[in-house]
Design goal:
Blueprint: H1 2-60, H2 65-80, H3 84-107, H4 109-113, H5 115-150, H6 154-161, H7 173-180
Helix pairs in contact: 1-2, 1-5, 1-6, 2-3, 3-7
Length: 187
């Protein structure tokens, strides 16, 4: 009888440990979802500022239609992207297009001095900083989650809940060079 009780205690302890590990993985998964939602909020703020910025630039540099269209096209693609990998790639293209837009401002002193443009540029810079912070938080949450489901004993419990590794939100190497390159200014 005592052997049966010991076996029952061991089974109960194992079930308790599995429950604790499973709950931790669920909490980490929820944290990544919440962190991605924070990134999404910041990206939406960025996307909302862009049409105003383009309209302001259009008033001064309407003949720069190609650059303005590229920014709007990149914004629309970024809004349509879903998932961290696709959004990271689309946001990289958008960042490069915005860089070209701001380079245009250098060629138009009146635009550069326009208070509306300066305010929009300041707001966009502020949002960019918030996006960077939210991305860092999200990627940290993803790293913690992925580590938890890959380490023992989490790697045994994660498949029970259907958990799999999550993607980081990063700019792909292909777009990184484009984003980091200085924009070309044409006169």
């Amino acid at each position: 009888m005592s052997g049966f009780l010991i076996l029952l205690a061991i089974v109960a302890a194992l079930i308790f440990v599995v429950i604790i590990i499973y709950n931790r993985i669920v909490a980490l998964s929820q944290r990544t979802e919440q962190a991605f939602a924070d990134v999404d909020v910041q990206l939406r703020q960025r996307h909302d500022l862009i049409p105003n910025l383009v309209e302001t630039v259009k008033g001064y540099a309407s003949h720069e239609k190609e650059t303005l269209d590229a920014v709007i096209s990149a914004r629309n693609a970024a809004q349509a992207a879903s998932g961290p990998a696709a959004q990271g790639q689309a946001e990289g293209v958008l960042g490069a297009a915005l860089g070209k837009l701001f380079a245009l401002a250098e060629a138009y002193p009146d635009l550069k001095a326009n208070t509306n443009f300066l305010e929009l540029q300041r707001e966009l810079s502020d949002v960019e900083n918030k996006i960077a912070a939210a991305r860092r938080f999200f990627n940290n949450a993803v790293q913690e989650f992925n580590t938890a489901i890959q380490q023992i004993p989490g790697n045994f419990v994660a498949p029970l809940g259907g958990f799999s590794a999550k993607e980081y939100f990063e700019i792909p190497e292909v777009n990184r060079a484009q984003v980091e390159a200085a924009p070309e200014v044409k006169f």
